[in-house]
Amino acid sequence: MVSVSSPELLVLHGLRVKGMADAATVAERFGLDRELVDELLLDYEAYGWITHVVFANVDGWALTAAGRAENERCLAAELDQTGTRSEVVAAHAVFLALNSRFLNTITNWQIRPSRTDPLAANDHTDPGWDQRVLDDLHGLGRELQPVCETLVVSLPRFAGYPERYVAALDKADRREQAWVAQPKIDSCHTVWMELHEDLLATLGLERGA
Fold first, then answer.
1. How far apart are CA 15 and CA 146, in angstroms?
2. Which of helix, strand or coil describes residue 55?
3. Helix H or strand E encompassing 134
4. Would you say 139 and 97 are in contact if contact means Cβ atoms under 8 Å apart?
5. Rounded CA gap, 159 and 148, in Å?
6. Which residues contact 182 (CB under 8 A, 6 or more apart)?
7. Calculated CA dihedral for residues 120, 123, 125, 130, nearest 10 degrees
8. How far is Cα 66 from Cα 46, in angstroms, rounded to an integer?
9. Which of 169, 158, 166 shows the shortest CA–CA distance to 196?
10. pLDDT at 1 over 60
11. Taking the domains of the chain in order of start, what are their residue ranges?
12. Which of 16, 111, 113, 173 is most buried when burial is the number of CB atoms within 10 A of its CB?
C-alpha cells in the first residue's frame, strides 16, 4: 500500500532528518506550501515539540525531546497503518552494509596516509587517490539506487535521496571538492547521513544500536 505522508508528519520529520532547518528548507524538501509550513511550525512550538535555535550564525528550528518522541510515534503509526514495516526493515539492512563502506570511503577522502603519518590529512595533491575515492562513491550511489526505489514504492517521502547524491557527486567530479563531505551543503555525506537518520527515525532505532 502506497502512503502519501501528511504535511503534519513531514514538517516534524523534516526537522528530525535535517537536525536544524528553517521553514523554507522544510518546505522545499517535501514540496510543501510555505505558509502551511510556517503555521505548523508555530503550532509545534506551542506544543513544545520544537524550539528556535541559533548556532554558529545559523538559525532555525530543531526538535525538542518531546518533539522527537512525537515524530517517532507518528512514524511508527504510519508504518503500522500502511503495513510497510518489513519493507523498511529490509531496506535498512541493505543500507547498513553500504554504510560501512561509505564511511570508509569518506575517511579515504579526508585522510591519505604517508610513510611517516598514517593519519595524514588528504591534501588532494594525488589525483589518482582522489579519483579512486570518487569511483567508490559512484559505485555506492549505484547500489543505493535500488534501495531507495524500494523505499519510495512503500513511502514516497523517501524520494529524492539518489538524485541529490548524484547531483553532489557530479559537482565533485568537476573538482568542486566540498561536495564530497562538507557539512551545511547538500554534499554526498550530508545526503547519505540524512537518509541514515530517516531510516533510523522511521524504525525507532538509535544511531549505533
1. 26
2. strand
3. helix 127-154
4. no
5. 7
6. 189, 190
7. 80
8. 12
9. 158
10. no
11. 7-79, 85-203
12. 16
Q: How far apart are alpha carbons 205 and 203 in whole angstroms? A: 6
Q: Name 166's Cβ contacts closer than 8 Å, sequence gap at least 6.
A: 141
Mind listing the pLDDT tens digit for each residue in 54-106?
877 778 999 999 999 999 999 999 999 999 999 999 999 999 999 999 999 99
Name residue, grid cell 579519483: 131
Q: What is the largest CA-CA distance in the chain?
A: 58
Buried b (16+ CB within 10 A) or exposed e, 114-126: eeeeeeeebeeee
- Kindly provide the residue ranges of all beta strands, DSSP E only, lying in 56-100, ordered along the sequence: 58-63
Half-sphere exposure of 77 (CA within 13 A, CB side): 9
Structure-model confidence comparison of residues 136 and 3, the more confident one: 136
**At 2, is the pLDDT very low, low, confident or very high (cuts 50, 70, 90)?**
very low
- The residue assigned the cell 547500489 is 143
* CATH of the domain spanning 7-79: 1.10.10.10
> Bridge partners of 61?
21, 52
- CA nearest neighbour of 175 among 143, 205, 134, 140: 134
- Model pTM score: 0.93
Give me the pLDDT at residue 208, please: 66
